[in-house]
Amino acid sequence: MRKLPESTVLAADYFQSYSVVGLLALVGVLFVAVAFGAGRLLRPVVPTPEKLLTYECGVDPVGEGWAHTQVRYYVYAFLYVIFAVDSIFLFPWATVFAEAGYGATTLVEMFIFLGFLAVGILYAWKKGVLTWT
Amino acid sequence: MNDALDVALRLLAVFAVFLVLPLVIGQTEHKVMAHMQGRLGPMYAGGFHGWAQLVADGVKFAQKEDVVPAAADRRVFQLAPAVALLPYLLVLVAIPIGPSEGAVGIIVDAGIFFVLAVMGVGVLGSLMAGWASANKFSLLGALRTAAQLLAYELPMLLAAASVAMAAGTVSLPGILNAFEWWWLPWQIVGALVFFVAGLAELQRPPFDMPVADSEIIFGAYTEYTGLRFALFLLAEYAGIVVLCGLTTVLFLGGWHGPFGADGLGWLWTLLKTAVLAFIVIWLRVTYPRLREDQLQRLAWTTLVPLALAQIALTGVVKVVMQS
């Protein structure tokens, strides 16, 4: 057999491990499908209009279920998106930062990075975003 | 052909763990909670101390009528439990329980990354359930679930990144190979942050505001009955298995132990996971529910700064050691 270049071999391994994950996902989907199918055969089906009513503590539902509610969480969502995107970059960096030749430089970089995150949180805190209004 | 058989056996093992361990933890919770509260808990099903209670529950759930409210978005409503449950199955495949290659479902290079990414998908199930139910309580519950995930995913990521820095790799077996006993005190803050944030992501008490029964019935799951409701419950307990397993692998040294790490490593992993699961149950019995704003404040003003401090500590110690 012809000898493959190393990168090709690595790529093959990569796909092999994720194809197993894919197979497991398939097993999971099958499990749910079988459970729902078997459930359909086992359970009684006796719908009445009252039963199909939206549950609201026993009284008739008022208005629509998709009612307007005050959503206070969107600020947290913004904060999360900003910080999560930042912290994703930590992972590739984490695997190399202590290698020979990086040392103190990467450490200083890390403190700059942490400083940015900390200032961001302090700013949000100062703005009163983190306390309930 | 042998490869195919090998893969099939691995998948079967992971699937068996996925079905059995959550039930074991659920049954333990019944009994432990009962005894902590001066009760006996289930005593009849199966004869010996009610060991078959959850099997009986499962049989009951399967026979219940499956009610989909007339106002609900039918397809999404029916699909939601599967979306909530399956991520935990996928995460289990990457968690190593022993030192050999045979003791892990499959070695995923980007272990931590894969695990955290897939776990985050589970919240979509709750969001789908809450939105599709067309019920005000469900919608409130779903939004609370999402807000909670947003708040606690960040400290969890940061704490996990600290371990990746310490080990110099993001592969889970790689982290365990690099583990030394003194990582335990070194990473203890990260471990606490990770565990607490994980509890909050699973919506376990005291972080169960999204399903607070006294104010919003059962949150996103209010309209669910029978089998679909059972799958949501299974997802919660599978989540406990995954969280405790991950904490064990990342922070407690997995299969490392004072002795017998070569042959009986998997026993150490199981033991540590079991102890953590017991703590999860214990916390449920001990603490009252946090209010929604307290929940958010704990994450942003306590856990995130702690996790950042842990990263700084890890970085300094690692670079000092290297030079």
Low-confidence stretches of chain B: none
User: Which oligomerization state do the chains in this entry correspond to?
Assistant: heterodimer
Inertia-based shape of chain B: globular
Shape of chain A: flat
Q: Could you say how many structural domains of chain B there are in total?
A: 1
Helix content class of chain A: 55-70%
Largest sheet of chain A: none
Q: Overall mean pLDDT score of chain A?
A: 77
Largest interface: A-B, 72 and 81 residues
Q: Compute the number of helices of chain A.
A: 4
- Helicity level of chain B, as a percent range? over 70%
Q: Tell me the span between the first and last alpha carbons of chain A.
A: 70 Å
Protein name (chain A): NADH-quinone oxidoreductase subunit A
Family (chain A): Belongs to the complex I subunit 3 family.
Subcellular location (chain A): Cell membrane; Membrane
GO molecular function (chain A): NADH dehydrogenase (quinone) (non-electrogenic) activity; NADH dehydrogenase (ubiquinone) activity; quinone binding
What is this entry, summarized?
With 133 residues, chain A is mainly α.
Structure description:
- The complex is a heterodimer of chains A (133) and B (323).
- Chain A has 133 residues and is an all-alpha fold.
- Chain A has helices spanning 6-42, 74-88, 90-96, 104-126.
- Chain A folds into two domains: 1-46; 69-133.
- The longest helix of chain A has 37 residues, at 6-42.
- By secondary structure, chain B is mainly alpha-helical.
- Chain B has one domain (68-322).
- Chain B has helices at 2-36, 53-63, 74-92, 111-132, 136-167, 172-178, 183-186, 188-201, 213-216, 226-251, 265-286, 292-322.
- The model of chain B has no long low-confidence stretch (mean pLDDT 86).
- At the A-B interface, helix 1, helix 2, helix 3 and helix 4 of A face helix 1, helix 3, helix 4, helix 5 and helix 10 of B.
Ordered list of secondary-structure elements with their pairings:
The complex is a heterodimer of chains A (133) and B (323).
Chain A: H1 6-42, H2 74-88, H3 90-96, H4 104-126
Chain B: H1 2-36, H2 53-63, H3 74-92, H4 111-132, H5 136-167, H6 172-178, H7 183-186, H8 188-201, H9 213-216, H10 226-251, H11 265-286, H12 292-322
Organism (chain A): Streptomyces wuyuanensis
Transmembrane segments (chain A): 20-42, 73-94, 100-125
GO molecular function (chain A): NADH dehydrogenase (quinone) (non-electrogenic) activity; NADH dehydrogenase (ubiquinone) activity; quinone binding
